[in-house]
Structure formats: structure tokens, C-alpha cells
Amino acid sequence: MPVKVPFWWIATGFLMGVLISGLIAALVIWIAPKAVQNWRELALAHPGRALW
Q1: pLDDT at position 15
Q2: Which of 34, 43, 45, 52 is deepest in the core (most CB within 10 A)?
Q3: Cα–Cα distances in Å, from 39 out to 5, 12, 23?
Q4: 49: Cβ–Cβ under 8 A, 6 or more apart, which residues?
């Protein structure tokens, strides 16, 4: 029998995932800004490569 999960648990879990992902991205940018800039330039130069 399926368990009824409150909407707020789902919404809170989603928002926490977004927050954690954003914090990890900010940390990576803070630690290695040059590497991140190189990744961005590569993604802009070859957009299809980002998918593979």
C-alpha cells in the first residue's frame, strides 16, 4: 500500500537539492575560477560536446 507523503516534504527536498547544488557550484567557482572559465569557454565554443 503506497504511503502518502506530504507535499511540503517533496518541495523541501527539492529546494534543499537546489540549494546544495548551488553551494557546490559556488564552492567550485571559488576554488578554481580559471578552470571554470575554461569549461565555460569550451561549452560556448562546442555546445554539442557538453551533451556527450
Answers
A1: 98
A2: 43
A3: 39, 31, 18
A4: 42, 43
Model pTM above 0.85? no
Cα–Cα separations (whole angstroms), residue 9 to 16, 19, 23, 28: 10, 15, 21, 28
Write out pLDDT tens, residues 1-52: 888 999 999 999 999 999 999 999 999 999 999 999 998 998 888 888 766 6
Contact 36, 28 (CB under 8 A): yes
